[in-house]
Request: fold
Amino acid sequence: MILRFDHVNYVYDADGGQPVHALSDIDLTIGEGEFIGLIGHTGSGKSTLIQHADGLLKPVSGRILADGEDIWEEKFDRKALRARVGLVFQYPEHQLFEEDILSDVCYGPMNLGCSAEEARERAVSALRQVGIGEDLFGQSPFDLSGGQKRRTAIAGVLAMQPEILILDEPTAGLDPRGRDEILALARTLHEERNITVVLVSHSMEDIARFAKRLLVLGDGRLVFDGPTGEVFSHRAELEEMGLEIPRPQRLLEALKEHGFPEIGTGAYTAEEAARLILRELEKR
Amino acid sequence: MEGKIHRMIAQARDVAYHYIRRDEEGRVVRDTAALSSVSFDIERGEFIAILGHNGSGKSTLAKHLNGLLTPGEGAVLIEGMDTRDGEQIWNIRRIAGMVFQNPDNQIIGQIVEEDVAFGPENLGVPPQEIAERVQEALARVGMTEKRRFSPNKLSGGQKQRVSIAGVLAMRPKILILDEPTAMLDPEGRREVLEAVHSLNRRERITVILITHDMEEAVDADRIYVMDGGRIALTGTPREVFAQAEQLAAIGLTVPMAVAVAGLLRQEGLAVEGTPLTQEELVEAICRAADKITGDIK
Reply:
């Protein structure tokens, strides 16, 4: 699915005393099979933006188009849209509620009108994708580790078979291993299933490693939209907005100022940074 | 004991704690050891970071330090007071204040000032003194300007600093922070860490910071690494992060500077020591590069 934001504006508390312009003239297209990062300071409009993507919020003006169709037209099936655009909220494990894991993941497809049998098939497949083994299917979600709980919650969204998966801070509160598992899962879904992924994160390092395109929101406006490396070259503007550039890139820029004027700075992992440093030293 | 000054502000002696689940008849259906033979001595004014994967026992340990949990075996002493002593529990909670991950769950007041006043009000502090304490606590975290704001108009970092002010208004000697930056954007993270470091440096408040972010542990005086309910590693950040393999084995990483230095060394570059920060690493690389140039000459 191609999802287009056509000059979208959104105002909280439009009728009340203190209207807050949460989104201003957002114009962008999420193409099929993209892996997009979304960053911005707290209150920049990220959550408001993603809630527009599956019709949880309605623009005050402008349109949201799913494959060219206005999702707020009367005949448009927004219930189906919410399955096609899978939204994984922050701390999704807080919404696990069924007695066992399999029933919890079946809930979404059942709600969509799938037969019990089909719901079960979808749930099993989704749990497999997130790496939850069959030995755990009968367990209570509350007996799982933090990383497992979060993966189970993501499976609940995958069981709806979305075409676009939006992950809001999916690694917050997880340890390094749990974080890597979730990010590897996002990459696999993108590469092997061709699911469009939108990753919202405060970790510039995670964004840099995974997203090919980067959107930057600041006070409700889309300030940058471009290839990740290109956007991260705007260091001063990003820092002005309370954001950062990834640590490995910061290191290389510091080296550039300390006697390595020729060194490349496009590195997002320790491995890439080390490679660029060695390449520079070989010249000596 | 009265009036005696303890150099050790927090001590644990062979602490064990089990989470026990029972069925309706009271039979034990599960018994999980969350802490096993944990012992430590934390000095007044130290900045301690506690690292460990999810489920390693970090938060259980933190909850022992202000008596939210009490040891199944062994003892935890806060300024010499045993956390199992019911008569001391309120003194202990006043001395050891806790800040959690999600500021939205901790802020209850409609206005910043009211929220910060909540703690001392509960302690029965006289109104005049409450006003003083609130003013002082907000100044200490740099939030005086926002004192009349509604908390929901604040950024994540500002909210978390209000949570810290709420604890400071109780005049604690130990500040325990359980992943206080996990939900914050980069600026919020920096604001909170600066506030905490400044309290530690300027006022010698003992800080115990639980975190998943290795970079946040770099500036600590000492690190405890938890694994399976035990203290697996301890030492200065430089000592602990020099043990990259042991950390990897228990699912943790090292700060970026340490990782890059390790990779450069593997390729034969003579990067010395364990550079913890970007600045230290840049220096070490420059020295290594000078050596290469010198060798060629």
Q: What stands out?
A: DSSP finds eleven helices and ten strands in chain A. The mean pLDDT of chain A is 93. The beta strands of chain A are 3-12, 20-30, 35-39, 61-66, 69-70, 85-88, 164-168, 196-200, 213-218, 221-227. The interface with chain B takes residues 40-43, 90, 145-147, 169, 172-179, 202, 204, 242-244, 247-248, 250-251, 254-255, 258-260, 270-271, 273-274, 277-278, 281, 284 of chain A (CB under 8 Å).
